[in-house]
Design brief:
The protein is mostly helical. It has 5 helices and no strands.
Length: 109
């Protein structure tokens, strides 16, 4: 019974604070997709660039890897920020609900 109440409470809070929660989730998904190119680019470096001693392509791939890492930092920061906003707003609501002076009014519905 306690798990059902916890899930109901979580879903209610997600509905109330859709924007920060969905923004954080979208940034988190983008962050996951930005993890995909690095292993492939390293495979290209090892299989093609190093044996051919193609310095221009190596420099291009290094710049691409740096760009991906910078993008990952930005998406990680944004995701953390929006989830923190969601957490703070939810905690503020919980504290207001648990205030003994206000609890009679909130739970009397």
């Amino acid at each position: 019974m306690g798990i059902v109440n916890s899930i109901t409470f979580l879903v209610t809070n997600v509905r109330l604070y859709k924007k920060p929660f969905l923004s954080g989730a979208i940034f988190l998904i983008c962050l996951s997709f930005l993890s995909l190119p690095a292993p492939y680019l390293l495979k290209v470096v090892v299989d093609s660039v190093l044996p051919a001693k193609d310095v221009k392509l190596l420099n291009l791939i290094i710049i691409a890897l740096l760009g991906v890492q910078v993008a990952r930092i930005g998406f990680s920061y944004s995701s953390n920020y929006y989830f923190e906003v969601f957490n703070q707003e939810a905690l503020t609501r919980i504290k207001k609900c648990n205030d003994p002076r206000k609890s009679r009014h909130i739970f009397s519905i």
